[in-house]
Design brief:
159 residues; alpha/beta; Rossmann fold; 4 helices; 31% helix; binds flavin mononucleotide
């Protein structure tokens, strides 16, 4: 057990309609658990935006809608982050999308740009539709980047 991580409180909050982002969120959740981190996972419907500041680190998961748009159920949390300035809060954003669309995972890009300004953004991760075995290593890297960022600086775009 990594005692260094045991006092951290991490939340994963995701929006998903057809299950791809939910599945990715759970892959990421299991990786956090394997690192003895105290992690909670919420669908966006279960999460109260007023709880944003109760966590040391947040990983936001979103699919993309319309023409590279943030899904409407993710807008309250987006605006919640916009209304704070917490450079001490480590964040990361992941999502699933479809490369058939011109703005692949456009919602991830929008969250990335906003979280970079308002929080301590550590990493982004984009996955094509349903996560595959090959994505596991990228998810590991994403988790490491977020944990490594708590109280530190450095940004990772997981390729
Ligand atoms: C109407 C519609 C619009 C979409 N627009 C985009 C888009 O602009 N960019 C993108 O990468 N994916 C787009 N997608 C694909 C979804 O983001 C993708 O299927 C995603 O994995 C769904 O996530 P979920 O299974 O968690 O709901 C769109 C899908 C639909 C049905």
């Amino acid at each position: 057990m990594d005692l260094m991580n045991s006092n951290l409180s991490v939340a994963i909050v995701y929006g998903s309609v057809t299950g791809n982002t939910k599945e990715l969120a759970h892959v990421i959740y299991r990786i956090f658990c394997s690192k003895a981190v105290k992690v909670s996972i919420f669908s966006i419907e279960e999460f109260s935006v007023s709880d944003l500041c109760h966590f040391d680190a947040l990983a936001i998961g979103t699919y993309t809608w319309g023409k590279g748009d943030i899904p409407k159920e993710m807008l309250p949390i987006y605006r919640g982050f916009e209304s704070i300035r917490r450079k001490d809060m480590a964040t990361a954003v992941f999502g699933t999308g479809d490369t058939c669309y011109p703005m692949f995972c456009g919602a991830v890009d929008q969250f990335r740009d906003m979280l970079y300004v308002h929080t301590n953004l550590a990493a982004t991760l984009k996955v094509e539709l349903r996560p595959q075995k090959e994505d596991l290593q990228r998810c590991e890297k994403f988790v490491e980047a977020l944990l490594g960022r708590v109280n530190k600086d450095s940004y990772v775009r997981v390729k």
